[in-house]
Amino acid sequence: MKKQKGISYKTKLWMIVLLLPFTITIYILAIIGWKELVKIPVVQEWAETLQKSTVKLDVPSEYIDLYKKAEETYGVPWTLLAAHHRIETRFSTMDPLLSPVGAEGHLQFMPCTFVGWSHPSCGGLGKGEIPEKDKINPAIIEKYGGYGVDANNDGKADPYDLEDAIYSAANYLAASGAADGEIEKAIFNYNHSEKYVEDVLHFYHLYENQVKEIQAAYYPAE
């Protein structure tokens, strides 16, 4: 039996060339057709609903209110707080919330930054030799000029308490210039690493853009 030959490469090439204009025409007509179709109120409503459902913020929703309250208090963009939280502990999913160099809590404060660098034991990287009870004592923190905050008024400023940690980070970033728009300077002050600055800025801009997309989807310009 004689083996049948398949379509030659040259024939396939010619078929693609001949079909290409047809494909482009169909594509253009589809775009034009969709533009006309979305003018129909029911279709327009469906398209807007679909757009809203696909625009999402890459931040755990349960933390956003805390970020925003801290922003109201200290003037630091809540999206910047979210970016720091993401970089420091992946939104508090790091276990334990203690780094090898001694940074503690949800936003990874060195004890001397949280309690105050004027504490007698502070120096070097800032781990210090601060008694545990003093680390969370607002009076001790005030005495030594630290950035720890008792945000929920429970008598303790605790880096392992999420609300205290977020407010403390906002306090520190505000004092470092973030409340005045000096975002990069504030990030660098939080961690003296250019790579760290790049990483935080990446997520800060990502969240800022996502917020704008959501606002555009839900509140389109008239």
Would you write up a description of this structure?
With 222 residues, the protein is mostly helical. It has 2 domains: 46 residues, no CATH class; 156 residues, Lysozyme. It has 10 helices and no strands. Helix 3 crosses helix 8 and helix 8 packs across helix 9. It starts with 8 loop residues before the first helix and ends with a helix. About 6% of the residues have low confidence.
Mean of all residue-level pLDDT scores: 85
As a percent range, the share of helical residues equals: 55-70%
Unreliable sequence segments = 42-54
CATH architecture designation of the largest domain:
Orthogonal Bundle
Q: How many structural domains are formed by the residues? A: 2
Task: List how many beta strands DSSP finds.
Answer: 0
Tell me the radius of gyration.
27 Å
Distance linking N and C termini: 73 Å
InterPro entries: Lysozyme-like_dom_sf, SLT_2
Transmembrane segments: 12-34
Protein name: Lytic transglycosylase domain-containing protein
Domain Transglycosylase SLT: 143-180
Spell out the blueprint of helices and strands.
Elements: H1 9-37, H2 41-54, H3 61-74, H4 78-89, H5 111-115, H6 132-135, H7 138-144, H8 162-175, H9 183-190, H10 194-218
InterPro entries: Lysozyme-like_dom_sf, SLT_2
Keywords: Membrane, Transmembrane, Transmembrane helix
Domain Transglycosylase SLT: 143-180
